[in-house]
Amino acid sequence: MTRTPSPGSHHDVPAAKRWRLGEAPWRGDDRDAVPPSMRLIIDNDFSGDPDDLFQLVHHLLSPSVEIRAIVASHLRPGDGMDPSDHTATNAELVARDVFARMGLESTGIIHRGSEVALEDDSTPRDTPAARAIIAEAMREDTDLPLVVAAGGGLTDVASAYLLEPAIASRMSLIWIGGPEHDGLAVPPPNAMPIEYNLLIDVVAAQVLFDAPDLEIWQIPRDVYRQCLVSETELRFRVAKAGPLGRYLYDEVRAIMGVIRELGMPAFETYALGDSPLVLLTALRSLFEPDSSSSVYVEKATPQITDEGAYRPVRGTRPMRVYTHVDVRLMFEDFYLKLQEFEDWRGR
To answer: Rounded to whole angstroms, how far apart are CA atoms 293 and 46?
Structure first.
């Protein structure tokens, strides 16, 4: 549903307000106060729900993560958010457009993923995105840990693993997706039979949950649905924060308008469900670093069935399943970083 820009769209950002990753000119004398604590690969379906635009902007404005690659991934065929057959291409256009709007010149880190899901659990989709994941995971010249933060389907991460299984022990995966776990939460009313992000590529999720050396932190559906902001909040904290904020707000309002036109129940909130990817990476605690303001349980990693459910497996590696995320820290940090960035651009 995110409106796809025309290729080569420009936003006339003055040369003095252009920047590259690793710089943070809006922070002034404090630009070096928070060095990167991890390497990050962002994987998201940017032509779909605009919540990923908020996550992308938030991560780009967060100096404690060193963003090494951005994977523009696909949606499922006929998805109402983007029913085209080239959703990864559209996702790449959207990501490049966000960079242009921000005056960010580091476009070489954006990689297009597969346009289709895995056909089976042994045949990868060999894409530039999958190769970029492998190259970053196999680096020997840095001690910074590598995290893959995925807000959609997992086709390209799974493909990278199938092409080079050694990457599993060299990175961790934080994934927004999957249904509720028994005993922790119940599905929402009229829930999709297979959770939205899992449905994009069930086989890819099966591959990664079965990867014995891969550390997984999961934010399932009941938790990403906690990430609600009100329309009033967006009007006052986002839309008034310069052209970038207005763009983000307008993308959410466009979806609200479609819902209203379809005669569906309309409420005063929107779920920015991909934002925990920022919370669990850039916003960890200073001492004994961890996502200490959010709550999780450890479970033996289950298998995922063809029907999108969990099959318990005894004795498998533990994984984190989050049950609560700190929305105050997550959203207040975003609002302030957005305002600080736009204040610098307006000077």
So the answer is: 28
Alpha-carbon distance of 114 to 121, in angstroms, equals 15
Which DSSP string corresponds to 204-230?
HHHHHHT-TT-EEEEE-HHHHTT-EEE
Q: How far apart are the C-alpha atoms of 174 and 320, rounded to whole Å?
A: 9
pLDDT tens digits, residue range 6-34? 766 678 899 999 999 999 999 998 888 89
The per-residue pLDDT for range 147-195, each reduced to its tens digit, is 999 999 999 999 999 999 999 999 999 999 999 999 999 999 999 999 9
**Whole-structure pTM value:** 0.96
Spatial separation of the C-alpha atoms in residues 51 and 274, rounded to whole Å: 6
Give the residue from 294, 272, 298, 276 showing the smallest Cα distance to 285.
294
- How open is the CA angle 324-328-334, to the nearest 5 degrees? 115
> What token pair was written down for 215?
């550390």
How many CA atoms, within 13 angstroms, populate the side-chain half-sphere of residue 282?
A: 29
